[in-house]
Amino acid sequence: MKRLLLVAAMLLTVLVALRTAGDIGYWERYTAALADVGAEGQVRLTEPRLRIAGRPAGLPLATLAAENILPAALQDAQRQGIHAGVWALVVHRHGHRVFEYFERGRSGQLEVTGGELAALPFALAVGVLADNGRVPFERALQAVRASAAPEQDWRDPWSRAAQARFTLHPAPALLLQDADGDVAGTLSQRVWQPLGAADAWLWGRSDAALRVDCCMVARLDDWMRLGDLLLGLGSREGERIVSTDWMRRLLVRDDGGHTHPLWLGRQAPWRGDEPPAEGDVYWLDLGHDLRLWLAPRRGLAILVWAGGNRAQDTLIPNIILRGLHDQAPPIGGGGLNDLVPGH
Question: In this predicted model, what pLDDT tens digit does every residue of 294-307 receive, in sequence order?
Answer without folding.
Answer: 999 999 999 999 98
